[in-house]
Amino acid sequence: MHTHSHTFPFLAILMIVTLLCPLIPAHAQEDFPLRPYYPEVTPITTDKLMAEYDITVIVDIRSRLEYEVARINKAILLPLTLENFADKLEEVRPKHSAKPMAFYCNGHSCAKSYQAAQLALSLGFENVFVYDGGIFDWITAIPKRGTLMGETPARADRIIDSQKFLQHQISYDEFLAASKEPNTVVIDIRDPFQRDSGPRIDDIRNIPLDPLLDLVTSRIWTEKKLLFFDAVGKQIRWLQYFLNAYDYFDYAFLEGGMRAIANDPTKIKPVIETDQTVITSQSMLLKLTADQRLDNADRKVISYLLANIKFNNYVVIDINDVSRDTGISSSLLTNSMKKLTTFGYATHSIMQGMLIAQVDPRLAWKGDPDSPLWNHKVKEFDAAIQQ
């Protein structure tokens, strides 16, 4: 199914839903501290969800990585961050249905499941619940209907608790000192569009999480000391499951990610791209030019994207800047991006006024084509286009 962008209405609704949440009462429920914030949302307990398991539509609104690590067996993956979340939710279950629909995420203090449930209610969905026990309550209570690191029943002894997670977090000064030790690899797992700045550390490898997992599971670094950092210190927790599963022992995470040091100029530096060359395929450009399904506005937009690739095949730019520079209105620009996605030239999303696009890596690529990362991105792009 092709991507459709209804971002602005979706984000507007989500923002309104969040702002309308009441202030927390003085006597908040300790076990489920977020329930007072979302009085319109009905929780469903582990026992009740188990009793109605066969008839309930269970929706996992986390990332694909989190879903791959641990999930309820019959859950449908539908990340809340999708720009067309509302459209896809109707494909999961009609608005008017006797079947219960329950949203879940990572636990008692994870707000995303509440936000998804409240958004569904605001869109007119009936029989909506939040399973705020979350994935770890589920796999602990009902392991036979849960999966953890590919194993069913889920094994409770493989759950990484907070203490084990904290044991591998280190301060920036410790991280910097460790990076200078021999046989050490420092890896930035952020997505390319998040890399405006980085820590003042030499020889950092920029490997987004998806291709990184392929390298981790191949066990090529088991004899190395590995240092990882992300944007805010959350993605690394899910990476830890793969590190443990594939026998990595000597690793550490930057506590709090880049956000923890973002305001200290002695610890961060701007990211300077050393490779400014975008390699384009002349044969694919000719194919694009001859494609009668595209009009001049579409070709102008794709040309603009190719001229503004930030990293690999990513374009991250303010949508108003695109309209201004191309002379194409926002509505026509959105229509062109839909067509370019439909016809397999680029995928896109629009988040908070920013256009985030990935062009076909075979059409244009900033860096070394035919590298393992390039091959991974080709497969990722083809899979995204076929959805």
Automatic annotation (TrEMBL):
State the source organism's domain of life. Bacteria
Q: Does the keyword Signal apply?
A: yes
Among its keywords, does the record have Lipoprotein?
no
Which InterPro entries is this protein grouped with?
Answer: GlpE_sulfurtransferase (IPR050229), Rhodanese-like_dom (IPR001763), Rhodanese-like_dom_sf (IPR036873)
Q: Which UniProt keywords apply?
A: Signal
Sorted alphabetically, which Pfam families does this protein's record hold? Rhodanese (PF00581)
Q: What's the protein called, per UniProt?
A: Rhodanese domain-containing protein
Q: Which SMART domains match?
A: RHOD
**Span of the secretion signal?**
1-28
Task: Please state every residue range assigned to the domain named Rhodanese.
Answer: 56-147, 180-270
